[in-house]
Amino acid sequence: MSNDAQQENQTVETPTAEATATETPSIESQLASALEELEKARQDVLYAKAESDNARRRAQDEVDKARKFAVEKFASELLAVKDSLEMALKDNSSIENIKAGVDLTLKQLSGAFEKFAVREINPVGEKLDPHKHQAMTVVPVADKEPNTVIDVMQKGYTLADRVIRPALVVVSKAP
Description:
Elements: H1 3-11, H2 17-23, H3 27-68, H4 72-90, H5 95-115, E1 118-121, E2 133-140, E3 149-154, E4 156-159, E5 162-165, E6 167-173
Parallel strand pairs: 2-6
Antiparallel strand pairs: 1-4, 3-6, 4-5
Protein name: Protein GrpE
InterPro entries: GrpE (IPR000740), GrpE_CC (IPR013805), GrpE_head (IPR009012)
Family: Belongs to the GrpE family.
């Protein structure tokens, strides 16, 4: 290398500390900025956690209320039935009046059941269905197919197609 080339290499200016400070942020300012971002992210996480906790708590409260008051409408319908029964017990004027009152009360009760999808299971003449019927007795019958319900000892009930009480039945068998 010639002397001129060596002098050029030596005369190349290196950046001073002041020039570097104005061009790029210092490590301290970078650290401060990163800490601010970290604190903001931490606050965001805490806010999101609090929101999810509140949503979970509100949902649990709603479920608890739904369980607690699920039968409120049904109970309101049954209050009229209870009132009618109490009036029938107070009225001692005649058997016919009491019978008429009980008939009306039964109609009210049946109406309440219908309104809330409580249906009777009255399976006379049907095949025995162990999901809906409970055989209490088996009787030999010549003119019926085996496992046919020939009598109902106690009606069963469904609520929205779910059996809440099976029907107690008498079932036929081959003689």
